[in-house]
Amino acid sequence: MQEPSYMIAIPKDQSLIEDPKNFMGNLTSCEFIKINDMNMDETRGLVIDLTIGDNDYEVELNPTGVEIPDFVRPEHAFTDEEVRMLDEAQAGLAICFNYEGDSNQCFHDQLKIMDVLFPELLAVLDCPSEKLLSGKWVALAAKSSVLPAPRYLFTVQAISDGGDEVWLHTHGLKRCGLYELEILNSNKEFFNDHYKMIEAFALRMLENDEPIEPGDAVFIGQAAGKQLTLTAVDWKEALDHYPDVTLGTEEDRDDGVHSEDTCVLMIYKNERAEEQKIYTPVDDFNQFLGQNPMFYFSTEETKRMSALARERLPYMLKAFGNKENTVIAKIGLTIDKEHWSNPDKPEKEHIWFEIKDIKNDSVVGELTQEPYYVSGMKQGDTGTYLFSDITDWLIFTKENRVSPDDAYLLA
Questions:
Q1: Domain ranges in the chain?
Q2: pLDDT average, residue stretch 98-106
Q3: pLDDT confidence band for 205 (50 / 70 / 90)
Q4: Mean pLDDT (the chain, rounded)
Q5: Among 79, 120, 159, 316, whose Cα sits 20 to 30 Å from the Cα of 269?
Q6: Burial group, residue 327, by CB count within 10 angstroms (0-12, 13-18, 19+)
């Protein structure tokens, strides 16, 4: 099932690819990368055994030609000059190795290797997820103490034949030793919600210590008071439930890419169905999706997002100095004790405030929404909160909407 993670680093200075001496010195002199062994293999290229932190990797490096396929999605914004340089780029360096253990950490380490090799990266072509990453983003992410968002490990593609039917499927999960995911018989009205279902299920697969096997029930959210419990079903078996689909059929899988290690997401309507392994198409849940569906993030992902927001707080503070920008921050407020799950463990509700002022290590914010579980507060109320209370932030400039993950736009 597992495939190697094959990425192509595209440096701004194309001449660097011509001679390994131009970039290998950066790797061998790096303080946090230990080179254990290095040899040239006739078929694999330069093979390097190296260690980053507690992780050992066998990395293959190969100069390669660069051609960005039409199906590759730019994950980040590129300037007009960067687009021109990409159009003219002809050479890159392929960096390839197998992920073992924590896939998020392996992905982060792969970014670190590319950033060390080429301090001036133009872009990275992440072949497993079919994404084009900004070199500026890679540099910022590689130097961060916080792991990149796990959604970077995969892409959800939407395929349409021009009609209403949409076939959703992932790319990139196989490098993590997981099966790919699909939703059949989606449509233009609901495919965004179906996209979120796939993403939520994929994130759970990546976070779980134990594998999520086909048939296992995974609770990912709710809508209209109805629980949304998904399971994965081998695509050949799932097709029996979709006799009328025209996309994602056996004929669409001749290339082999979507014919092995791929499962269709389906739902368990209730506990009885879950117990008896009776699953039905996801579109049976469509009737509830128009009623404010909620998809859950894990505690681990919430902590990761909060850590990144705090690490990159200087970008927010600097942006606030430009009065043409609007800055909002999500603040964690302690909810009323009657709503605590554990009477001895305070819980928080995370609410958006518009930043009005900054004082020392605090922000003055105006509440932009009504809290659900904090009595005595209403929209428009103003308060002072410590930087440590901030769990997320957004900057609205004339040109962009910038989140902590997008801070490369302000670099």
A1: 5-149, 154-295, 299-410
A2: 96
A3: very high
A4: 94
A5: 159
A6: buried
